[in-house]
Design goal:
186 residues, alpha+beta, Metal Binding Protein, Guanine Nucleotide Exchange Factor, Chain A, three-stranded antiparallel β-sheet, 11 strands, binds zinc ion
């Protein structure tokens, strides 16, 4: 298949998946499972402005649905807490202005305004775009899980947090590129 054709097909495939697994579908799935698991997150406009915090249904899907939606590597990283190899992802050396969203559920997670060059080969941020949208570190966890950072809406594994970041927070959110999609601000 010629490249030009592939490029045309992929966005429409994403749109198709978004239609099938959109917010309404997710809500139905969580209802069928008997879950009333809402979370409060902050949505952002296309121009990057925050909306008031809103209660939304948590995104819960069976593993088979995540496998259909995600590439094998994205599945391994986000649903199996894998780690991409440093200096291999799309965003460690990315300097565009915009919002990084969850590859699984499209929740806004990080802003280019808080990105810094950590030299690690992973995109690094000194804070999330909204405290409500990103979970971590988990206070009760020990060992390897203690530093884990996840998406509040769908529990995707995003990466890890460390305390050697720049001011003002001193934090370093070390994130796998493949857990993110980038949306440029217009
Ligand atoms: Zn998510």
């Amino acid at each position: 298949m010629p490249d030009a054709q592939t490029k045309r097909i992929q966005p429409s495939r994403r749109e198709f998946l978004a239609g099938v697994f959109g917010a309404a579908g997710m809500h139905l799935i969580s209802k069928l499972r008997g879950a009333s698991d809402d979370v409060t997150i902050v949505e952002f406009t296309a121009a990057g402005a925050p909306l008031p915090p809103a209660r939304v249904p948590k995104v819960v899907k069976p593993e088979s649905e995540w496998r259909k939606q995600l590439s094998p590597l994205a599945f391994d990283i986000t649903r199996r807490a894998g780690t991409e190899r440093s200096f291999t992802g799309a965003y460690w050396n990315w300097h565009e202005t915009g919002i990084f969203r969850c590859v699984c559920c499209n929740t806004a997670l990080f802003s280019s305004a808080h990105k810094f060059d950590s030299g690690t080969g992973w995109p690094s941020f000194w804070k999330p775009i909204a405290a409500q949208n990103v979970v971590g570190p988990k206070a009760q966890s020990r060992g390897a899980d203690a530093t884990e950072v996840t998406c509040h809406r769908c529990d995707a594994h995003l990466g890890d947090i460390f305390d050697d970041g720049p001011r003002p927070t001193g934090l370093r959110y070390c994130i796998d590129s493949i857990a993110l999609t980038f949306v440029k601000l217009g």
